[in-house]
Amino acid sequence: MFHGQFKAQPNKMTASSALTIYHNPRCRKSREALKYLVDNKIENRVVDYMKAKLTNRQLKEILLKLNKKAFQIVRTQEIIYKKELKGRKFEEEEWLKIIISEPKLLIRPIVISKHKAVIAIPPENIKVLL
User: Fold this and answer.
1) What is the DSSP string of 57-91?
2) In what side-by-side order are the strands of the sheet with 19-23?
3) With 0-12 CB in 10 A as exposed, 13-18 as middle and 19+ as buried, what is 33?
4) Domain 18-129, CATH 3.40.190.10 — does that match?
5) Residue 17 — φ and ψ, nearest 5°?
6) 86 Cβ neighbours under 8 A, 6+ residues apart
């Protein structure tokens, strides 16, 4: 016999495979997505991007996993968008800087896995990451 060389692994996500939720606790849809993760016992890591500002690298990784351009994840209903950005043209790098400097413009919640991401509206969108 192998005398314990192989151990049964629990049917659970590892720390490296835990989902990350970019979360704004003041947002109802974001709270619903987090509740979905908790209720379904899905291991997760919460990033309150309103407190811990996103880096350019993080934002690019999110966009790559979402397969979207920066403007596609901008909340166009925000006042700052309507007053200062609506109708203006920006390059991709400029949108990245705008989102980083005004994180409330980032659509939420975004949930990411190792290789893919979803906008979790509705929260059931998270299923494609499992």
Assistant:
1) HHHHHHHHHHT--GGGGB-TTSHHIIIIITT----
2) 44-48, 19-23, 110-112, 117-119
3) buried
4) no
5) -105, 0
6) 76
In whole angstroms, give the CA distance from residue 122 to residue 62: 18
d(CA 17, CA 129): 10
Structure tokens of 24? 């704004």
- CA atoms of 76 and 3, how far apart (whole Å): 60
pLDDT band of residue 4 (cuts 50, 70, 90) is: very low
User: Which residues participate in catalysis according to the annotation?
Assistant: 27
Q: What is the pLDDT of residues 57-73, one digit of tens each?
A: 999 999 999 999 999 99
Q: Measured in whole angstroms, how far is the alpha carbon of residue 55 from the centre of its chain? A: 13
Provide φ and ψ at 25, rounded to 5°.
-60, -15
pLDDT, tens digit (0-9, with 9 covering 90-100), for 77-89 = 999 999 999 999 9
Question: What value does the CA radius of gyration of the chain take, rounded to a whole number of Å?
Answer: 17
Q: Where are the beta strands (DSSP E) in the chain?
A: 19-23, 44-48, 110-112, 117-119
